[in-house]
Design goal:
10% strand; 743 residues; alpha/beta; 3-stranded parallel sheet; 11 strands
Length: 743
């Protein structure tokens, strides 16, 4: 049986759940994957009461609340997979200890839950609690709503007690759609099939089988494969793409650098949109090749040599939709309207649509985001800009547009020569996929992985590694090394976690000098009492976090600042689970006139959203010399906030809070060059400096006209500060001239 036939059988096995009970469907799926066994001992009643009577020993400390047992509507022991069953399928299979692990059998359970969807942590908690009850690994197939989740746990022997196991990371293949299984889910299940695992790893015992599962479920391998496809696309597109570069002569940069940065900027925007699509916030028809043939005139997909998709769909989505409040969106006027010339906030290219009158319909029900990620870099000539600027090319004039043909977004393209880019003759005949096809091939998740749980999907944190590699690959200083390493040029998560932990523990010891308890607080342990500190100590620690300032002077794409954000969010959740202390601090840190409105809005938001918003506003700063690196860092922070927002159809902007402005939190600058140290500001611009701090604080949460007004005030203040420094410099020059003349 060829691979395509096996994958089709897997797809049908998933759809089989729609018409059959959970046990029948689950056994059928595992048999399709090649795990055949007659060792079945199904429960009679298939409910939690029977499960409890049969398996729960009071000494095992099974936590019914954490395991959400009240929400179990169905539970069954599917089968036990042991050496005997495997021997029927493969020879030389034995049980032995490998790498301090002994595994002699697997148990497979199925559990149906009452709610339609569950966060990864909830399913991980159930998996851990069930695994406490058995001496061997228990794999659980969950059904919730119209989706399935396969939850796999890693176990090892306790270092000091060989009779005990340590429950390690829980990995999930999450939210498999029963009616329409995602291509990525079919691929990963195929990779886990018995014959495919044996072909790759030639295992001879249960430990090696377990290790083969773990290697197949290693998110690093998934990320590496994704990066390789994306990087090949980037190198291929770079040969033809042409973004305009109209700007002041003094600002002109190397053309190749400009095209590289523009292409990476496109990737940051599109990947953010893809995460939005994962949350159901963007019309999926806009990326469906078949549907696009009915939406756009003369659209030819992978054969397209015209720039239709980028102009009509992506530019309208980026600039006229996501950067514009819902009630203010409109199409550009027909004919020439001087007020709309150069306006990046109106829909263009109506003539490219089969039904021009439906243009607005394709982009409706997409929330306004703010935040700057989708601000068009084009600027019309006015009092502030002596010449017209065109960098994004969102224009109806062909000479000012982007050239990026449709074929770069769709299809499979063979015999692409990238040998000179890699300096490797073996890269002469590569197959490169269109960008949308690449993204379609993978499952994306908006939940960030932790050291104790992860989903087999591309998450926001891992995408940072993709961009670190892209930046290194176009930077002349690191280009050769990065391209040869193909996806390994990044700061490993373990190193980031270590740096973050050590830095924050050293800081918090200034408030409470108890390293053991601080490390307990930092851990991802599943203890029932996660906060080891008293009420008074908790208040001290939360205040210390509020006063903490974290600056990464060479932040790149934001690995360390993002690591700090995730860790501080985790700590605040353990210290202040109801968010009582932190919520008041977040509100009080806002300008007085914003506090009442913010309190009303934020009290209904996910608490992790409020935690992250406050941490970003109060604690985190990043600087990098590469503007595009700062763009990517912002992307990661924005996605991190998007994770915790959900659609509320009846509320303004669908219930989404506009993203904060991070222009003064993450800044492109050279930290090796310090600001002039003199008394100029004190003498000539003292009020401007105080006002600058006040304005940047207000700017963080500003939107629309208020945002533009504050930005204009910040420009004026900055100009005064610069002029003050220039005044002192001129005085020094005059003084030196006088001294030279007198000599």
């Amino acid at each position: 049986m060829d691979n395509n036939m096996i994958k089709n059988n897997i797809r049908q096995a998933i759809k089989y759940f729609a018409e059959n009970d959970l046990t029948t469907g689950a056994i059928n799926l595992f048999q399709t994957l090649g795990y055949n066994t007659d060792r079945q001992a199904p429960l009679t009643q298939k409910n939690f009461i029977e499960f409890k009577e049969d398996y729960i020993d009071p000494e095992k400390n099974f936590n019914e609340e954490k395991a959400l047992c009240d929400e179990w509507t169905y539970v069954d022991l599917l089968f036990q997979l042991s050496k005997k069953e495997i021997l029927k399928q493969g020879s030389l299979f034995d049980t032995k200890q490998v790498d301090n692990t002994i595994i002699e059998t697997y148990l497979f359970f199925s559990i149906e839950l009452s709610q339609t969807s569950y966060p990864r942590t909830a399913l991980s908690n159930i998996t851990r609690e069930v695994n406490k009850l058995f001496p061997m690994p228990v794999m659980i197939l969950f059904k919730h709503g119209n989706t399935l989740t396969l939850s796999v746990i890693n176990r090892r022997l306790h270092k000091r007690d060989a009779t005990r196991d340590v429950l390690e990371k829980v990995t999930q293949i999450k939210d498999i759609n029963i009616e329409k299984p995602h291509r990525a889910h079919i691929e990963i299940l195929f990779d886990l099939s018995f014959n495919e695992l044996h072909r790759k790893y030639s295992f001879t015992n249960f430990v090696e089988l377990h290790d083969a599962w773990q290697k197949t479920l290693d998110i690093k391998e998934l990320n590496k494969a994704f990066y390789q496809k994306l990087f090949n696309w980037y190198l291929w597109a770079l040969k033809e793409v042409k973004f305009p570069q109209m700007r002041p002569e003094s600002d002109i940069i190397d053309e190749k650098v400009h095209q590289s940065e523009s292409l990476i900027r496109l990737l940051t925007r599109l990947l953010f949109v893809w995460f939005m699509k994962e949350k159901g916030l963007v019309n999926p028809d806009l990326f469906n090749k078949i549907k696009l043939k009915r939406i756009l005139k003369n659209f030819r997909g992978e054969e397209g040599t015209d720039t239709l998709f980028y102009k009509a769909i992506l530019q309208n989505l980026f600039f006229a939709t996501l950067n514009k409040p819902i009630d203010q969106r409109k199409k550009i006027d027909k004919g020439f309207n001087p007020k709309e010339y150069g306006d990046p906030l109106v829909y263009r290219f109506e003539d490219l649509f089969e039904e021009p009158d439906k243009l607005l319909d394709y982009f409706k029900d997409i929330p306004f985001l703010n935040g700057g990620l989708f601000e068009c870099l084009d600027q019309k000539k006015d009092s502030e800009n002596p010449i017209e600027i065109r960098l994004d090319g969102f224009s109806t004039r062909k000479t000012k547009q982007v050239h990026l043909p449709d074929k770069y977004f769709f299809g499979e393209h063979k015999n692409i020569d990238l040998s000179s880019d890699y300096d490797d003759k073996k890269k002469k005949n590569l197959t490169v996929f269109g960008l949308i096809d690449i993204l379609d091939h993978y499952k994306f998740t908006v939940e960030e992985s932790t050291p104790v749980e992860e989903e087999i999907a591309l998450d926001p944190e891992l995408l940072g590694k993709v961009f670190e590699n892209l930046l290194a690959s176009y930077n002349p200083e690191t280009q050769t090394t990065a391209r040869k390493q193909t996806g390994s040029y990044y700061t490993p998560r373990e190193i980031v976690n270590y740096m973050v932990d050590e830095s924050l523990i050293a800081y918090l010891k200034n408030s409470i000098d108890d390293e053991d308890r601080l490390r307990e607080l930092f851990s991802f342990s599943d203890k029932d009492e996660p906060n080891p500190f008293s009420i008074q100590e908790t208040q001290q620690l939360v205040e210390a976090i509020d006063n903490c300032k974290i600056l990464d002077p060479a932040c790149g794409s934001g690995a360390f600042p993002m690591g700090a954000l995730q860790k501080l969010t985790h700590i605040l959740h353990k210290l202040d689970p109801e968010n009582i202390i932190w919520f008041d601090m977040v509100i009080n840190n806002l300008p007085q006139y914003m506090q009442k409105e913010a309190r009303e809005k934020l009290q209904n938001e996910d608490w992790n959203y409020v935690r992250k918003l406050g941490i970003i506003q109060q604690c985190i700063y990043g600087i990098d010399i590469q503007p595009i690196a700062i763009q990517i860092a912002k992307l990661r922070f924005f996605i991190s906030l998007l994770v915790h927002q959900n659609i509320k159809p009846s509320e303004p902007n669908l219930g989404f809070e506009p993203l904060p402005n991070l222009d003064f939190k993450l800044v492109a600058a050279n930290t090796l060059i310090s600001a002039p140290e003199n008394d100029a500001i004190e003498a000539y611009a003292k009020d401007s400096l105080k006002n600058f701090e006040k304005l940047t604080n207000e700017y963080f949460s500003a939107v629309n006209e208020q945002k533009l007004k504050i930005k204009e005030e910040i420009k004026k203040n900055t100009k005064k500060i610069v002029e003050a420094n220039q005044k002192v410099i001129n005085q020094w020059i005059e003084k030196i001239k006088r001294e030279n003349n007198s000599a």
